[in-house]
Amino acid sequence: MSVRLASGDLALLQEEEGEGARLAMSILARMADVVGARELLDITAAHIDSSLYQGPATLEFAERLAEGGARVQVPTTLNVSGVDEHGWREWDVPASWAEPARRQMEAYEAMGCEPTWTCAPYQTQARPGAGEQVAWGESSAIVFANSVLGARTERYPDLLDICCAVTGRAPAAGLHLTENRGGQVLVDLSRVPEPLGAESALYPVLGHWVGLRVAGQIPVLDGLPARPTEDDLKALGAAMASSGAVGLFHWVGLTPEAPDRTTAFHGRESSERLRPGLVELRAARDELGSGLADADGLDLVVLGSPHFSLSEFAALARLVDGRRRHPKVRLLITTGRAVRALAGKAGYLDAVEAFGGELTVDTCILTTPMLPGGIRRLMTNSAKYAWYAPGLLDRAVAFGSLADCVESAVAGRVTRDDSAWTC
């Protein structure tokens, strides 16, 4: 093993803190060696994707750590679980799935993790600051932490993330290191028409388009007069991470490590330039649809990947106020339990529920077998849902803006306002 371990690391390997901590450190040290890290570094927080139940192996791993006395050493939030702990009976979740998924939730809570159960912990929890070393799992959370918050995390896979949290350590490699965080591909947005730049639906589509072309490299976006919101950046990063395994992007003049283009590229020249315009972006939007065309019937409009934020609930409440969904179309929002509580307190849920909308928390449609077999045609404003649903759920999908999704839920068929996409 070439990685240098500190005395505290060696003490964990010698089982001075129990079997659970020894197991976590042994895995971490081995993986640090695999990725070529010379040493481990201290982290200040973690976000755990391993909390998602994926079968007997993930449950056994969690319970073995917990029963071995493993406890997290830093504030640790939990990603979505395999089940809505209290609302799973309202959908088609088998009890044979719900019970082990619930046990896995309990194992992570026993290790001292915070029961946030959301892929967007930054919406309600304390955020890591710029330059802070953390260990985050879940692709959309990782890219948000690195890019929007300026924290530093590698793209941690399931099982390794909890090992970092239990030891309070992470491999000193990848995006933890300054030299690996410079931009590599310039995305020149000067050809994006002004009306499209003002559309929130641009950002998931742009992220999808960029992700497919940068193949895990670090893009630097520049040249768009519009200033995206935090929800826009959340959607942009989630789409890049889904289609292109992007762990970090820079937006010149907006994100913490990109006050200007030169700084974003660490003083280097960009070796590649991408210049998407209206034609390319409209084609990318249409690519996000899978076997479901305008005017086709709908079974479900699904929102909230990454989990719906409080500001998104406010926007949705305005769009549905005084209206009612089509009786053949269900509207589902997935969110975290903390955001749901805030949305309820703000009064946003009254309008959503009067419209006929439904909520599920702690999980999402991609990670729990909740959808009835009769739901075959989905529409969403999430590029992540649109990217994964055809393969993971075997459903046809249409993509549109939040307003398009509401109009379609009312009409009972796919309907989209194309004005900004044809200017």
Features:
single chain, about 425 residues, alpha/beta, Aconitase, domain 3, 3 domains, 5-stranded parallel sheet, 4-stranded parallel sheet, 16 helices, 14 strands, globular
Folded structure, characterized:
With 423 residues, the chain is α/β, with parallel strands linked by helices. It has helices spanning 7-13, 19-34, 56-67, 95-110, 139-149, 160-167, 194-197, 202-214, 230-244, 261-264, 278-287, 310-320, 337-346, 348-355, 383-393, 402-411; strands at residues 40-42, 46-48, 76-78, 135-136, 169-171, 185-188, 219-222, 250-251, 272-274, 300-303, 330-335, 357-361, 377-380, 396-399. It has 3 domains: 7-179, Aconitase, domain 3, CATH 3.30.499.10; 182-286; 289-421, Aconitase, domain 3, CATH 3.30.499.10. Strands 12-11-10-13-14 form a 5-stranded parallel sheet, sandwiched between helices. Helix 15 links the parallel strand 13 (377-380) and strand 14 (396-399). It is globular and about 65 Å long.
Summarize the helices and strands and which ones pair or pack.
Layout: H1 7-13, H2 19-34, E1 40-42, E2 46-48, H3 56-67, E3 76-78, H4 95-110, E4 135-136, H5 139-149, H6 160-167, E5 169-171, E6 185-188, H7 194-197, H8 202-214, E7 219-222, H9 230-244, E8 250-251, H10 261-264, E9 272-274, H11 278-287, E10 300-303, H12 310-320, E11 330-335, H13 337-346, H14 348-355, E12 357-361, E13 377-380, H15 383-393, E14 396-399, H16 402-411
Parallel strand pairs: 2-3, 2-4, 6-7, 6-9, 7-8, 10-11, 10-13, 11-12, 13-14
Antiparallel strand pairs: 1-5
Helix pairs in contact: 2-3, 2-6, 3-4, 5-9, 8-9, 8-11, 9-15, 12-14
